[in-house]
Amino acid sequence: MTPRSFTRNRVCIAAILIFVSTWIFRTFFASENMTLVASICNERFKRYSDPTVSLDLQTRTIRPNIKLLYEHEENSVKPNVARASTCSFSDETESKILYKVAELNKLCGKAILPSGLYLGHPRLKFLLVAPRGRLGNQMFLLASSLGISSGQNMAVCLSPELTLPAHFRLREMENINWTGGLSLLKVAERSYAAFDRCLFKLPPSDTRLDGYLQSYKYFHHTRDRVRDYFTFHDATLNSASKILDTLWDRESYPRNITALVGVHVRRKDMKSKINKALGHVLATRTYLFKAFHWMMDELPKKRVVFVVVSDDIAWCERFLSGRYARVAPPASAETHLALLASCDHVIMSVGTFGWWGAWLAGGKVVYYKNYPAPNSPLAKGFNRSDFFLPSWVGLS
Question: Can you tell me which family this protein belongs to (predicted)?
């Protein structure tokens, strides 16, 4: 036997061994995994579905007998997430489950996803909302992800580090949390506050968007859905209502002739050297007084009451508090946001927190147009027409 024929025989034997081992793995290991995941599906969805789960070992798919919720959009029927209560497992068991589910996804290519079951042909893809920043920044991430996922056969899910579930009901997203188990394609935004149309044509894979996504244009087409997601918890609404009762004399200012104008004043962290170097600026007293007068001129038939929320209450008490302005006491971020949202109109200072207070209120809005500082790092990624709604009014 020549060396060349010996090498050729070794290659043939290796190929046969690989084929046989692959066949054994797909036949036995996949079948074992499917049986395990079938029992998991039964447990997780036993309160919602028929407890039986049919397995198709030839196509390597799992077909739980779960009633699907459908949403009708533009004469098409799209599969939505099956609503069900989640069973509890130990951390060790959960990690094993997720690993096996991830392996099954590689075999099946559809039907199964960690932390919930999605059905469809092809299966829905994940669009992960990863943590970045505080409340206002996180709201932009979720709202923009909801808009971007619309029409792309993608299901938005939340990273467990996000604080949004503690502040909002989030409707049907309550059981859709990211627990790992799948590889993600990372897609980065081009600018933090500039609309990028390319994000509406994402590759057909599980995706993580990296960035801030701070443009209303990402979700303007699905704004009603976003507004529904950002429904405050009852406890937050009650706290905001109690604060408003202490600030607003309803007898002197009856509701039918009164306009409540929320005023957001952000100061403390804007004065740091780091933020100044980035291009953050403080909204001046001159701007705030101009905004006050603008609102009163726009609402001549109303008695205007200004409700001020701030991280610098002492400054506001000294310079803004008066006959028509009331400064809210310290409270949680979500309570102050709910207070702004309950007003008829809003005056912003700087930052995304005030932006969302204005957007949720839905009335007239005045913003500080000298933000960010010219030629600063923040200014390079900031497009004013993409960040502020066209109906909002900028003053200096």
Answer: Belongs to the glycosyltransferase 11 family.
- CATH topology for the 234-395 domain: Rossmann fold (3.40.50)
Non-local CB neighbours of 289 within 8 Å, separated by 6+ positions: none
* Whole-number Å distance between alpha carbons of 311 and 177: 31
Q: What is the DSSP letter of 129?
A: E
- Cβ within 8 Å of residue 348, ≥6 positions away: 264, 283, 354, 355, 357, 358, 365, 366, 367, 368
Contact 134, 356 (CB under 8 A): no
How far is residue 288's CA from residue 306's CA, in Å, rounded to a whole number? 11
Is residue 213 a contact partner of residue 127, using CB atoms and an 8 Å limit? no
Q: Pairing between strand 112-113 and 116-117?
A: antiparallel
Through-space distance between the first and last CA atoms of the chain, rounded to whole angstroms: 90
Domain ranges, ordered by start, for the chain: 25-113, 125-229, 234-395
Secondary element (H or E) of residue 116: strand 116-117
């099954």: which residue's tokens? 104
Containing H/E element for 209?
A: strand 207-210
Question: Closest Cα to residue 161, out of 186, 128, 188, 189?
Answer: 128
Give the model confidence (pLDDT) of 60-116 as tens digits: 343 333 332 223 233 333 333 332 223 333 333 333 434 444 444 444 443 333 333
Task: Please say whether the beta carbons of 263 and 347 come within 8 A.
Answer: yes
Express each pLDDT in 160-202 by its tens digit: 888 998 999 886 554 455 555 567 889 999 999 999 999 999 9
Provide the token pair at 140.
Answer: 């932009």
Task: Report the C-alpha gap between 98 and 192 in whole angstroms.
Answer: 33
CA 274 to chain centre: 27
3-state secondary structure of 86: coil
Question: Cβ contacts of residue 32 below 8 Å, gap of 6+?
Answer: none
Smallest CA-to-CA distance from 156 within 180, 167, 172, 133 is with 172
- The residues pairing with 186 across neighbouring beta strands, listed in sequence order, are 208
Cα–Cα distance for residue pair 83/88, rounded to 1 Å: 16
Nearest one of 246, 244, 236 to 262, comparing CA atoms: 244
- Residue 220 sits at the vertex; the CA angle it makes with 214 and 221, to the nearest 5 degrees, is 140
Cis ω before 122 (30° cut-off from 0): yes
The pair of structure tokens assigned to 88 is 């509890």
